[in-house]
Amino acid sequence: MLERQFSTTGQAVGWAKFARGKLGGKGVLLDTNILSLILESNKLDGWLRKTASHSQIATCRLNLLEHISSSVIIMDTEHDEIIAGLKAKGVHTIDGPCQSADSTSLACRVLREEFEHQAVEGHVVGWRGKMKQSRVDLAFACEGHTKGFAFVTADANFQAHFAHGLQNEGITTYVVPAGWLRASMVGSPAPYIASK
Fold this sequence. Notes:
By secondary structure, the chain is of the alpha/beta class. The protein is built from nine helices and seven strands, in the order E-H-E-H-H-E-H-H-E-H-H-H-E-H-E-E. The protein has a seven-stranded mixed sheet, sandwiched between helices.
């Protein structure tokens, strides 16, 4: 049984609406670890299907590159075929993170706020380890925000590193285990415990 863990920032809806796919706003921008659920199945399942019936689901071209470069992908898959397959499932594709000056500026503000917050808290601040790995997710979240999308990821480290700045800037993010999005989401969630 999947643990029902759920964590948010910004103007996120509560658990009950999230479980029904009713997120409000324009829709959701999916991280690569969520996009794989769509690309590796014939149709949208569970939560993704519910969400698609209420709002727009989007990804970006960098997510496609990350997915294509994974070891799971069949090497003869063409970029245009993937885009067409996503479109057939109702998933829109935006160009990518840091596409606009607004999203890049927003990401820089989040970073500054997060560094200041961590310095006040007495943490050692710097680009290393898991924080460095999460910076692309920060760019995704900020690009999605400037286009009206919430960001959905399964990467708990992303939120562990940037939650303070994301919250202060009002950037809506949801962190849930990827496999959980195929589940029926019956019952209430447990707090999401992220490693730092």
